[in-house]
Amino acid sequence: MTKRLFSASTARTVVLLAGVALSLSSCGWSLWDNPMTTVRPKSDFGRWSDEIFMLISWTTLVIFIAVEGALLYACWRFRDRPGAPIPKQIHGHTVLEISWTIAFAVVLLIIGIPTIKLIFKTQEAPAATALRVDVAGKQWWWEFSYPEFKITTANELHLPVGQSVAFDLHAPDVIHSFWIPQLGGKRDVVPHRVNRIVMTPAVPGEYLGQCAEYCGMSHANMRFRVVVHPKGEFDAWVKAQQAPPAESTDPLAQQGKTLFAQSACVGCHTIAGVSAGQIGPNLTHFGSRKSLAANMMPNTAANLAKWVENPDHLKPGARMPNLGMSGEQSKAIAAYLLSLK
Ligand code: CUA
Questions:
Q1: How far apart are CA 131 and CA 157, in angstroms?
Q2: Which of 81, 217, 258, 267 has the fewest CB atoms nearer than 10 Å to its CB?
């Protein structure tokens, strides 16, 4: 019988280690490139969180090496040998017990003090120059209001780079959590109280946000986009949002406008100059948004028509009712809403 090069258990170990290495390498890649990553901070809040993350990582690495080193040493030093005596027992060693209790209390302080300081620092009273944004977390979308500009929008947050922003977080229904991984959070959004986040975005760009507290059927579909603008660009966005919506003269869009005004849509949605509903998202400049249904899909005519026809089919549990629109009607409404730039 020929001797096998590897035993079955060696082969299994090699396969297991290769799998772990592969998943770690892909994990490392996605940590870096994933839009939901927290390890590439783009605000002061994100940077401070990252510093604490690194502090904890290094602290735990030192503990890991010390504990594993002691374990390996003990396994080798006190291994079973023929005739070896039972090692000295240290159970109930008072000095040891007190030392490791104090050592781990110190570790908790090293981690706890900067964490608690950061929590308070990122919710302190904002500077007078801070931009104020009211954030309402609702099942299952986000409303963003800018009181000083009298703008209300949904699921797309626009911020200027380099200016402190104070978010006042409130929830009309259940608990949500406001989280923009590259900028900051998570902070709970709780009914009957206002929580705050103060942060300064540092890098212009587009970021993703997500509700981070289970809040019902479409919790996973409660997402949003964040656009951090270079300075002048933000002012232009504010001006465009304050202006009445540019409307198309396209016959299909005009037909959609008439349908919208005559249907139950007006009871829930505001479009400046057309309707004043308060339950669903404000649609005044809906056509300027890139995504639909709390960042579930691109804001295209085809997606929007499908959404109007049967919201619950695309977003389980959606509060927007199926109004029994025909395919033609939903296409007309989609054409109208997309014309609201
Ligand atoms: Cu809102 Cu989860």
A1: 12
A2: 81
Domain closes at, from 242, 274, 293: 242
The residue whose CA is least distant from atom 1 of ligand 1 is 176
Residue that finishes a domain, picked among 242, 268, 303? 242
Residues of the chain with pLDDT below 70 are: 1-6, 23-31
Number of neighbouring beta carbons within 10 Å of residue 70:
10
Backbone angles phi, psi at 339, to 5 degrees: -80, -10
Which domain CATH number covers 304?
A: 2.60.40.420
**The domain containing residue 290 runs over which residues?**
251-339
The three-class DSSP label of residue 181 is: coil
* Separation between Cα atoms, residue 208 and residue 223, nearest integer Å: 7
Q: How far are the Cα atoms of 108, 141, 261, 287, 327 from residue 250, in angstroms, in the given order?
A: 65, 30, 17, 14, 18
CA 106, 108, 110 angle in degrees (round to 5)? 70
Task: Quote the number of domains for the chain.
Answer: 2
> From ligand 1's centre to the CA of 140, what distance in Å?
6
Across the chain, the runs of DSSP E, i.e. the strands, are 131-138, 141-146, 151-154, 156-160, 165-170, 176-180, 184-189, 195-199, 205-211, 223-229, 270-271, 275-276, 291-292, 297-298
Q: Tell the residue number behind the tokens 């890139």, with chain if given.
A: 290
Based on the fold, state whether residues 279 and 136 are members of the same structural domain. no
**Number of other residues whose CB lies within 10 A of the CB of residue 219:** 18
Locate the ligand 1 atom nearest the alpha carbon of residue 140 and give its number. 1
- Taking the chain, what is the end-to-end CA distance rounded to the nearest angstrom? 79
Q: Is 158 in the pocket of ligand 1 (CB under 6 A)?
A: no
Is 164 found in the same domain as 199?
A: yes
